[in-house]
Design goal:
Strand content: under 5%
Radius of gyration: 19 Å
Number of strands: 0
Oligomer: single chain
Helix content: over 70%
Distance between the termini: 29 Å
Largest sheet: none
Number of helices: 2
Order of helices and strands: HH
Shape: elongated
């Protein structure tokens, strides 16, 4: 039984790529959440369209991170 180094390299490459993708998506989500006012409008002001778009983008980024994490858990835990 030998070691297939190309397969190990492929797994390393995919793992590194997915890790970088999740970190970037989470960072973009945090930045969008902060730009959107962290989900709450200032006192006495209505939320503008850009605030809503930024909040929606943040939620989409966080949902993507959650989906990737859930898929990884699904791969690890048989069921």
């Amino acid at each position: 039984m030998g070691t297939t180094w190309s397969t190990i390299g492929g797994v390393l490459g995919v793992s590194l790529g997915v890790t970088v993708l999740v970190v970037v998506m989470f960072s973009l989500g945090v930045a969008a959440w902060a730009r959107g006012g962290a989900g709450a409008p200032p006192h006495g002001e209505r939320r503008g369209r850009t605030d809503r778009v930024a909040t929606a983008a943040a939620v989409a980024c966080f949902a993507a991170c959650l989906a990737v994490a859930g898929y990884g858990i699904d791969l690890i835990i048989p069921g």
